[in-house]
């Protein structure tokens, strides 16, 4: 083979490979054409000392296998439902787009951002089986597209979803970042065609999956000190930093706190512990038994 023909063969092979990989198709289409198998699963992150809700953020994964003899480039948009076999468990919904490649015969587990679309059902666990379902439409599709575009993968966005699926008030949406909170509240009000009131009070709606706690800490210090107020589970997993390394002057102070606590198993009694530190040294602690769901 001449040198020129050799380089041409390499070029054509390269173009051919790129064309195969560039022909991305929706995962739903690949499933329909039986090009892949898909097995949704609950995902539990490795232990890192933090408390992770099992029904929002990176809490699901797709085990996908390429059943063809060619590589596949696959996409999936936010809004795909992952349906549990147990009807008492939550139907989950993907809240971020994904794109991934599979070699011929390759199987991968693709980590997903997802949220619950049934606030009164039980949280998913690793033991639950799920099916790759249909896609969200209408109001829910509009909201999840917004969540994905803003990358709001948090508790506030979960409450926004429940505002559409379970009739929660838009003002149950809360976040310490007021830009995120107001953005989600405004979007939900627009979708539900109700007037947005930026001055509205927060609505606290208990559900099987969320409990609210409030309280105060009063303390006196004789010199300027750094203060931390932290919420832990009763098995010592971090839930929230209420105050982090904040300087307080000498004197008496009262700190108000509130927090919404994601609940993993509504059938079991649960509690949290407030830990109060001065200059990094534990000064006091207070236990909250979470109110039962009624």
Topology diagram in text:
Elements lengths: L2 H20 L2 E2 H6 L3 E7 L13 E11 L5 E5 L3 E5 L7 E3 L3 E5 L4 E10 L13 E6 L2 H13 L4 H11 L12 H15 L17 E12 L3 E9 L4 E11 L2 E12 L8 E8 L2 E9 L5
Parallel strand pairs: 1-4
Antiparallel strand pairs: 2-3, 3-8, 4-7, 5-6, 5-9, 6-8, 10-13, 11-12, 11-14, 14-15
Helix pairs in contact: 3-4, 3-5, 4-5
Descriptive account of the structure:
The protein is of the alpha+beta class and 294 residues long. It folds into 3 domains: 25-134, no CATH class; 137-205, no CATH class; 210-289, Immunoglobulin-like (Sandwich). It is 22% helix and 39% strand. The chain is built from 5 helices and 15 strands. The strands form 4 sheets. The protein has a 6-stranded antiparallel β-sheet with strand order 2-3-8-6-5-9. α3 packs antiparallel against α4, α3 packs antiparallel against α5 (178-192) and α4 runs parallel beside α5 (178-192). The longest helix has 20 residues, at 3-22. The radius of gyration is 24 Å and the shape is elongated.
| Overall average residue pLDDT | 89
Report the uncertain regions. 8-12, 14-20
Q: Which percent band covers the strand fraction?
A: 35-45%
Query: How would a textbook summarize the main sheet?
Result: 6 strands, antiparallel
How many whole angstroms does the radius of gyration measure? 24 Å
**Strand runs, count:** 15
* Terminal residue distance: 80 Å
Instruction: Give the spatial strand order of the biggest sheet.
Output: 2-3-8-6-5-9
Please indicate the count of domains: 3
The run of helices and strands is HEHEEEEEEEEHHHEEEEEE
Helix content: 10-25%
Structural class: alpha+beta
Basic shape: elongated
Oligomer: single chain
Number of helices: 5
């Amino acid at each position: 083979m001449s040198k020129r023909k050799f380089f041409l063969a390499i070029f054509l092979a390269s173009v051919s490979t790129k064309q195969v990989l560039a022909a991305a198709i929706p995962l739903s289409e690949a499933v329909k054409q039986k090009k892949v198998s898909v097995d949704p699963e609950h995902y539990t992150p490795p232990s890192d000392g933090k408390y992770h809700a099992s029904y929002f953020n990176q809490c699901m994964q797709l085990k996908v296998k390429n059943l063809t003899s060619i590589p596949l480039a696959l996409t999936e948009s936010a809004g795909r439902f992952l349906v549990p076999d147990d009807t008492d468990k939550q139907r989950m919904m993907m809240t971020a787009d994904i794109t991934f490649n599979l070699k011929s015969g390759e199987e991968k587990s693709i980590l997903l951002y997802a949220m619950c679309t049934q606030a009164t059902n039980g949280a998913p666990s690793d033991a639950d089986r799920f099916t790759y379902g249909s896609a969200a439409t209408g109001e829910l599709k509009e909201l999840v597209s917004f969540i994905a575009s803003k990358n709001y993968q948090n508790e506030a966005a979960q409450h926004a979803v429940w505002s559409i699926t379970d009739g929660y008030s838009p003002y149950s949406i809360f976040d310490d970042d007021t830009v995120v909170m107001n953005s989600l509240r405004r979007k939900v009000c627009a979708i539900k065609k109700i007037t947005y009131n930026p001055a509205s009070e927060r609505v606290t709606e208990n559900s099987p999956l969320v409990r609210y706690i409030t309280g105060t800490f009063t303390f006196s210090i004789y010199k300027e000190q750094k203060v931390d107020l932290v919420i832990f589970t009763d098995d010592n997993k971090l839930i929230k930093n209420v105050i982090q390394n904040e300087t307080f002057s000498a004197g008496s102070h009262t700190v108000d706190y509130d927090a919404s606590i994601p609940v993993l198993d509504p059938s079991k009694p649960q509690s949290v512990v407030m830990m109060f530190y001065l200059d990094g040294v534990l000064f006091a602690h207070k236990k909250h038994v979470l109110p039962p769901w009624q």
